[in-house]
Amino acid sequence: MSILLNSAAVTFAKDLIKHGKIKNDQGHWGQHNPGSTEENSFLKKHEMDEYANWHLGLDKSHSEDTKGRYKFPYGDFKAVHRDGLIAAKERAAQQGYHDIEKAADELLQLLEQHAGNPA
To answer: Mean pLDDT across the chain, nearest whole number?
Structure first.
């Protein structure tokens, strides 16, 4: 499985951070990561490309119109979560997706600067 960096999601996340749509949470991403119910609810009101913007990775082995194509979520469809970026960065590092790891780290640093917490 080859997962590529979703550059559109990185741009989208930077814009959210610059506009203060962040959660500087210190908890575990599992507490904030949207589950299937939240994902399906979001998709009832939004297009798949909007869903894609909330994921740093693209799995090209899945069709564009499936949730399985989109990996490494970092937010809750409202805000960028600090713990979401940390989880994405750690998982990308473990799985060898260095471009996604680097993007997550850069977004994390931007979020922490915006929140007033130097990395």
So the answer is: 93
Q: Sorting pLDDT into bands at 50, 70 and 90, what band is 25?
A: confident
Helices (H) and strands (E) in the chain, counts: 5, 5
- Total domains in the chain come to 1
Which of 102, 75, 73 shows the shortest CA–CA distance to 88?
73
Q: What is the DSSP letter of 55?
A: E
Give the whole-angstrom CA distance, residue 30 versus residue 22: 17
The angle that helices 98-115 and 7-18 make with each other, rounded to 10 degrees, is: 10
Domain hosting 55: range is: 3-115
Q: How far, rounded to the nearest angstrom, does the alpha carbon of residue 66 sit from its chain's CA centroid?
A: 17
Distance CA 115, CA 98 (A): 25
pLDDT for the residue 33:
87
